[in-house]
Amino acid sequence: ALAGFYVADDGRVNPVDATQALAKGFKQLGGTIVEGVDCTDIITEDDAVVGLETSAGTIKTDYVVNCGGLWARELGKSHGVLIPNQAAEHYYLLTDAMDNVDPSWPVVEDPRNYAYIRPEGGGLMVGLFEGEAASWDSSIPPFGEIAPDWDRLAPYLEKAMSRVPSVQDVGVKKLFCGPESFTPDLAPLIGEAPELQRYFVAAGLNSIGILTGPGVGRSVANWIVDGVPDVDVCGFHVDRARDYQATPAYRLERVKEALGDVYKCHYPYKTPQAGRDAMRSPLHAALVERQATFRSVSGFEAADYFGGKDGPLSWGEPPFFAAWRDEHRAVREACGLIDMSFMSKFVVAGRDAVHVLQRLSTSDINTGKMTYTQWLHKETGGVEADVTVCRLPRGTPWAPTDDSFLVVATDTIHRRVQAMVRREVRDGEVCAVVDMTGGLAKVDVQGPSSKDVLPELGDLAFRGVSTISIGKCASVVAARLTYVGEHGYELFVPSEHAVDVHDALVDRGAPHGLRHVGLKAVNSLRLEKGYRDYGHDIDNLDGVHDVGLSFTCDLTKEFNGKDRVLEAASQPRSRRLVSVFVEDKDAWPQPGAPVLRDGRVVGDLRSVTYGHALGGFVGLAMVDGPRWSGDDFAVDVGGRVYPC
Description:
Elements: H1 15-28, E1 39-45, E2 48-54, E3 57-60, E4 64-66, H2 72-77, E5 86-95, E6 108-110, E7 115-120, E8 123-128, H3 150-163, E9 172-182, E10 189-192, E11 199-203, H4 209-226, H5 248-261, E12 279-280, H6 284-289, E13 292-297, E14 300-306, H7 321-333, E15 335-339, E16 344-349, H8 353-360, E17 371-376, E18 383-391, E19 405-409, H9 414-424, E20 432-435, E21 440-446, H10 450-453, E22 465-470, E23 473-479, E24 488-494, H11 498-509, E25 514-516, H12 519-528, H13 562-569, E26 575-582, E27 594-597, E28 600-611, E29 616-624, E30 633-637, E31 640-643
Parallel strand pairs: 4-11, 12-14, 15-25
Antiparallel strand pairs: 1-2, 2-3, 5-8, 5-9, 6-7, 7-8, 10-11, 13-14, 15-21, 16-19, 16-20, 17-18, 18-19, 21-24, 22-23, 23-24, 26-29, 27-28, 27-30, 28-29, 30-31
């Protein structure tokens, strides 16, 4: 059987004509375009752009946008800005003229055969996104072309031509090989760079710039004019990139898989295989011994589940379901040990650290407890970061001063949190931020019997913080906190002591049902309790009231975005993040699935997974008002509607 999708409003555009049309419109609006000029340097003052040096002279400007395409990485590097895109060899074949080819035919995309096919020059163009690509030689001059690798491409061309066999009966006009840049996660890199204020990036469009370029341009333009993005940019923001991604060892390997992923099925639990092992937790070897299956989390190898079966990916129940279920139940019924060392951890220290953090945080963070708080945009009140903060106990050996604070954030906003602290420091204030992510392991002990594993913390109040010794480590900072909805503790351990502390916890936990637990179970545990995950359930367009986090706001103190919080509090709610439960075990909904109320789409699932304690699918959805509960809600999964 042959099946496909026809997109009636799909089309083609000549890139040269499109570029000239945009340039003409820009000039008509008063803009100036100067061609044939090299940018030689960026002029900065106080970590902000004030101009640039060019081969035609100095230009004073408040904003710079790096739209350097495949050269964006090298251009950004010269200014200390991280842009980890990498060019790969991209191929397309042009045939001689063919009878009966109609230039109005649609573009045919055939992912199974790695190809897209469309009319071109009286014949056909056959383009390839082959399963394993080749990285581009950076020594080739700009806009260069290289001789095609016929031996490598022949099997892919044969598959592509099988879709239109008549292509094999005509001559080949050209097999073109040129550079096309890709990002590690196949998402654009846009927005203000965390390293340099008013330096914007619009690059990494992954071979579909002709499609995404207008949206990227609009978003960046509005961002510059308004000072804030008007779309959800969590998955696109350049600040999500990490430095290892710019190394040749990583990007030259990763791009080979990234290009091929364009036409591969993106199953729910699919993880990249190229460019792995960039970073390892100090507990990595111990987790390997316990048959952990790992996935890449911002470059760290993080345990996903333990001892589960391998098998082909699908849209339904995964082969490791039983192992995931048992880990989930262990935390609900006994105790789980979870390595969360990939979480971003910073020490913020100095005479004015408390003042800087109080302005950033919606909550009072100077209480001696571990405080869950939000960091908001100053002007819009949108959530920029979701963190926990505590003043470190006096005498903590790895704290540089007695006025040091620990800030813990999700891995995807690592560089954003650093930048937010740096930029909040005012003239005359003394405050520094130190990245402790690699220096501290984070080991969570969660579940009802965690109090038996750590009896010395039995009197610790919820959110309390204490320094204890475990094994041969005298300086474990322990906080009574949970992300899974059970009694538990988060332990911050100097990396050199992590293995010893781990082994001691395993020995202590053996009589109490302690089990190693991976991230699959962490996700299902937290969603059963409705805990949020920034970048998934919360984005930059959300206010604290939208996502049910207004309880973090201490309105007796000042904080960035407070005026917007008060303004939103006086308005009726137009949307709300709600928990969703689907009982039908055959549903297997995925993030993005539409949520219906009385048969009409009123929102979508931001996160969803199987909840083993509840016996159904649990998720969080942003739903439009005016009503957020009732028996007429449902989730649409591939056209089939399931009550929720």
